[in-house]
Fold this sequence. Notes:
By secondary structure, this protein is an alpha+beta fold. It contains five helices and seven strands; from the N terminus they run H-E-E-E-E-E-E-E-H-H-H-H. The strands form two sheets. Strands 1-7-4-5 form a four-stranded antiparallel β-sheet. It has a three-stranded mixed β-sheet with strand order 3-2-6, with no helix packed on it.
Amino acid sequence: MKLQDITSISTGHPFRGAIPEQVGSGMRVVQLKDINKSGNIDWASTIEVDLETKKEPDWLKPGDILFSARGSRNYAVLVSECPEYALAAPYFFVIKIKYSKLLPDFLVWQLNQTPSQKYFQKESEGTLTKSIRKNVLEDKKITIPSLDKQKYVIKIAETLELEKKICEKLIQNGEALMSSIASRLNHEQN
């Protein structure tokens, strides 16, 4: 199936010019800088904005997917939780699933995997800054296995992510140990 057959895809909120920060407004906007290394939204780093619009914004909801349309890597991020009033910056596409037999986590996983990334690299446009057009994203073919298989793949991906975090922590601990040993040796010589 094509992505356009099972989702609705829209662009992020169309701010004119720079995004107008307004502390205390209660309305937050997700920008590229707010996506952490693990591929999650860091809500604490988002800014509050001032919206001057007549049309009711398309607020983000849990289960929505943000797709980064610009840059050297086009990745998807799941909105697992969000404040009541949150928007995506204009350089994101917002994907809302319409097909009940597709889990948002699985779609995010699939869009971030090598076959999808190769498709996006091949179809991206621009010389200095690469970007993906909406119709390219809509035409992306998606494989939808049974819900049980989707859940199984998600569980494996979560386990791998946990293993990566543990390995990073072990490396940090080893580096701290080496630094401590070097400091002790240096102190003993003096």
